[in-house]
Design brief:
- The structure holds two protein chains of two kinds.
- The longest helix of chain A is centred in the middle third of the chain and has 30 residues.
- By secondary structure, chain A is mainly alpha-helical.
- In chain A, a hairpin with a 2-residue loop joins strand 1 and strand 2.
- By secondary structure, chain B is mainly alpha-helical.
- Chain B is built from 13 helices and no strands.
- In chain B, helix 9 runs antiparallel to helix 10.
- The chains are: A mainly alpha, B mainly alpha.
Amino acid sequence: MHRLKHNWEICRAVAEVTYKEWSAYRTHSLVSVIVGPVYFMVQYFIWTSVYGGQTTTLGGLDLQQMIRYFGATALIGYLIMDFADWNLSMLVRTGKFLTFHLRPVHHRSFALFQKLGHRMLGFLFEFLPCLLIFIFIFGIDMRPASLPWTLVSVALAFLMNFYVNYTIGLTSFWLVQSGGIRSAFLLVSSIFSGALIPLDFFPHWLQVTQLFLPFQYIAYMPAMVFTGHYSLGGLELTIPQAVGMQAAAVLVMFGCNELIRRRAMKQFTAVGA
Amino acid sequence: MKRYVDVYKQCMYSAVQTAAAYRMNFIVSSLITLVGNILFPLVTLLIYRAGTSFPGWSLYEVLLIQSVFTMSSGLANLVFGGVLWTTMSHVREGSFEVILLKPLNPLFYIVATTFSVESVGLFLGGAALFVFSTLHVGAIPAIAWLQFAGLFLAGTAVLAGLSLMMAAMSFKWVGNSRISELADSVLHVGKYPLPIFPKAVQAAATLIIPVGMVGFLPASALLGRVTASDFAAILPCLAFLAAGIWIYRHMIRMYEGVGG
């Protein structure tokens, strides 16, 4: 019990320090207040034009659901944003990762709580202003179909995004400079996470493939949980079932991450560039 | 003038040599850029595949707009792509005075030394999509090609002006690596047919920040959809580039030389 409390204190301190550290650069976050609504505005007009005032559904979504979907993906993006891959890659390349072997905290936990602190700042300076803009300027109904399930799903997306990025960062233990892998992954992730377009628009075989890849659990699934309806590749699930599947996917990803991390540690030479 | 041309040629040669020294990095970066841009019209493809469309625009016409946009971005990035990051880095590190001491116009020096060979992937990706789209939109008369050339250069001038304005911001907003996102978000409007936006957005995208000139109007010229009055939009484009140059040069005076 004492050890648990001690670990909690460490993690809370990491989150607090990261929050304070990034508070010095809060105007970085405020860029999102312009960028997010502009992207959203473009999506808004694209889809308004595509639906053309008809009451049809596309990819199983009507216009209002589509707009809500893009609003949700934008806002969820602020809550789960992560650059653990870049950070870990930098630590390995410069040899600074060595210092984490001397600290009384596991680096993955350290990075996770850094992300938590960083996103708390994102919540205040990105999520909340953009939420208000979406509601009061665009007049979008941003009430989730089920608040508790949406919160759980976003929390799982937060973890999934972190574990996936951390795994990409671990490739630096072999490649030293993993910029190419990270760029390629970012490209694939941006397409298949559902942030550009709902995955229902993809060919059936690609939709089925997404069930076995981590991308859809990062943006598409939490956004669909927000809208209250989940289906992909012919698989239609209730919201609790979808969140259950997301939790299972996060566990699998964590297992993969742990396996690769253990192998990566054997590669570490502590020599920086 | 000849001196400037010689310097620029030498800088281009150096950039190519640098790329050749790190061949694998150059090939991978160019390939990812190329693939990224081939996938860029994916949203459009999926929308049309779902049996719907942008009213009044066929799939190949929208792809033509997007290919022109990509080519224009590639060209602008080739010449002006590195200005933002180099300026930002110099301002943050307090080393911009090294450039001010050179016996050359500082803006020219920055532009010449940041010739971005990797952007050739972006241009080639756009060019491939452009050829593919033009083959599907029917015969294009010679006059339309001439109109296209003029509007295309005007659109590229807009991108250059935007790059310079963003770079100029880094003199005051020191070390903000997200400045480029501001430009990227605004440019997003230029990737789709302008008539899908409300009149106010169309006016802003033609006269204030003329991003509509980057892909939409040059492609419209090829499709025979421009009117004589559309060519008046070239003026705001040139004004935008001039504003970019003026703002950058003005902001240099605000440089404080305190790095770290």
